[in-house]
Write a structure and sequence with these properties.
Helix content is 53%, strand content 12%. It has 229 residues and is α+β, with helices and mostly antiparallel strands. The strands form two sheets. It has a four-stranded antiparallel beta sheet, with helices on both faces. The chain has a two-stranded parallel sheet with strand order 1-2. Helix 8 (190-207) runs antiparallel to helix 9. The protein starts with 10 loop residues before the first helix and ends in a 6-residue tail after the last helix. The model has no long low-confidence stretch (mean pLDDT 94).
Length: 229
């Protein structure tokens, strides 16, 4: 691994992010990279803490599904995450950078779509579910596949299940323009997932005229090359 020296990003965050990109196709590495972004912005961002909280959530679900049915897993996953733990989207102060920080969202149970989908994916996959991200215009959704059934989930709206038609209508309301339904059939890669987190933050720091953090996020994005997946 080539060791670079960032000018703006905190070195520990930069190094952790760079290490994660080497195996970014793995969900654990996606989690590591997301936490690394947060380590530039938060003093107490901890990868072991995030992993422990993900395991605790999955354990709560696992104890309720003795027969291992994936349909049962999904139902109990939603009960734990969205009813008992009340994970949901945040509307007030939506553009606060902390809402893009995975450790903060794990603690507050409030976040923006892309961080909430990441938590949903991490917990769901520990339970054996097939969970992907959908990098949609104006929003970020989850896809769960059980046998031949494909479900679109919106963790921002407390796990609301949508048909493809309902998802298209919702996205069109957000972006105020027609949406090609094909955009909801292509799952996002982990590199694209990270790019969207980083570009969200770049946009926020640009609006805040925070040049140092803007440049730090650009340095991290440069590590996410198109050939890492």
């Amino acid at each position: 691994m080539t060791q670079n020296h960032p000018r703006f990003c905190k070195p520990a965050a930069y190094q952790a992010f760079q290490e994660a990109t080497l195996s970014i196709h793995q969900t654990d590495s996606l989690i590591q990279a997301a936490v690394a972004i947060s380590q530039h912005l938060m003093l107490d961002a901890s990868l072991p803490d995030v992993k422990r909280e993900i395991e605790q959530l999955s354990s709560q679900v696992r104890t309720r599904i003795p027969n291992g049915s994936q349909t049962g897993v999904l139902a109990h996953l939603h009960q734990v995450l969205f009813e008992e733990q009340a994970f949901q989207g945040i509307s007030a102060d939506y553009y606060n950078p902390r809402n893009s920080c995975l450790p903060y969202v794990m603690q507050s149970h409030r976040g923006i779509p892309i961080t909430l989908v990441l938590i949903y994916k991490a917990v769901g996959e520990q339970l054996g579910l097939n969970v992907n991200g959908l990098n949609c215009p104006g929003h970020f959704l989850a896809e769960v596949t059980i046998a031949n059934d494909r479900m679109i989930i919106d963790p921002f709206r407390r796990g609301l299940m949508l048909t493809q038609e309902e998802a298209v209508q919702y996205l069109e309301q957000i972006v105020n323009q027609p949406i090609d339904p094909a955009q909801l059939t292509q799952v996002t890669t982990h590199t694209a997932w990270l790019r969207r987190i980083l570009r969200n933050l770049q946009s926020i720091f640009s609006m805040q005229e925070n040049s140092s953090n803007l440049q730090a996020m650009c340095e991290l994005e440069q590590l996410v090359s198109l050939d890492t997946e």
